[in-house]
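Hi all, long-time lurker, first post. I run a small reading group and we've been trying to get comfortable going from sequence to structure in the token notation. Rather than ask abstract questions, I figured I'd post a concrete chain and ask someone more experienced to write out its structure so we can walk through it together at our next meeting. Sequence below, copied exactly:
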Amino acid sequence: MSKLSVRLATVQDARKLAVIHVDSWRAAYTGLVPDKKLASLSYAKREKSFRDSLAHGREETWIAEQGDEPVGFATIGPCRDEDTAPSVIGEIWAIYLLPEKWRKGIGADLCRHAEGLLANRGFVCINIWVFRENRSARIFYEHMGYEPDGAQRELNIGKPLTAVRYEKRI
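-- Answer (accepted) --
Happy to help. Here is the structure in token form:
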């Protein structure tokens, strides 16, 4: 297995990011998000969304590769929550991996990379939102040192789902 490299994503990576995102959602959220919603996910729509966001600097996404193969990504930035101080609290907006790359240490490496970037920018705490019913993700983040901070919000993704906020002091 080749070494993992992580680099800032560019507009040219939009298709790769879309495939990772859609495939990961379909695998991770089966039984949680309605099948109809998962079936409606589109590589083309996600590619356009990534292309637009990357072109206009609305998000900072880092792509993980093994050799020339894209295997995952992380999107980071200041925390977007109104009840936090975005000058000192960062956020991992997303971490997604191709399903066949789960449980191989890649997610942990990518998470540590994102944490390092945020720490180097002076953030003292990192937040991430996780669906309450996504036990696998919650175990992963707890293993990485994150703890629920008590904040919750409801999202409607074809049905109401509760997301819980995790935080980690760095």
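A couple of things your group might point at:
The first helix runs from residue 14 to 28.
The mean pLDDT is 95.
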